[in-house]
Write a structure and sequence with these properties.
This protein is α+β, with helices and mostly antiparallel strands. Helices cover 22% and strands 42% of the residues. The strands form 2 sheets. Strands 1-2-5-6 form a 4-stranded antiparallel sheet. It is elongated, with a radius of gyration of 16 Å.
Length: 81
């Protein structure tokens, strides 16, 4: 589990989450057969805190998606550090 401070609309949220790295597409197998599509990276939110208040079950879908997008961006950039 990873924990990060994420800011949305100048509001700091302390987020705990699990991240699974995606896998690349494989266009062809070694013998020339067609390959298979990769899997996208995934984020599972465990907790979203504002100060000491747990908000995960109260946040709307749009806000949760924004948090997940920010985490995916942070994690994808971290792969190149």
């Amino acid at each position: 589990m990873t924990q990060r401070l994420i800011e949305i609309d100048s509001i700091p949220f302390f987020v705990s989450y699990d991240y699974t790295k995606g896998t690349p597409d494989r266009l062809y197998m070694p013998n020339g057969d067609p390959g298979y599509p990769g899997d996208p990276a995934e984020v599972y939110l465990n907790s979203v805190l504002l100060e000491d208040w747990e908000l995960l079950e109260y946040l709307d879908k749009h806000t949760l998606e924004r948090i997940e997008e920010i985490i995916l961006l942070i994690e994808s950039e971290a792969q190149y550090d």
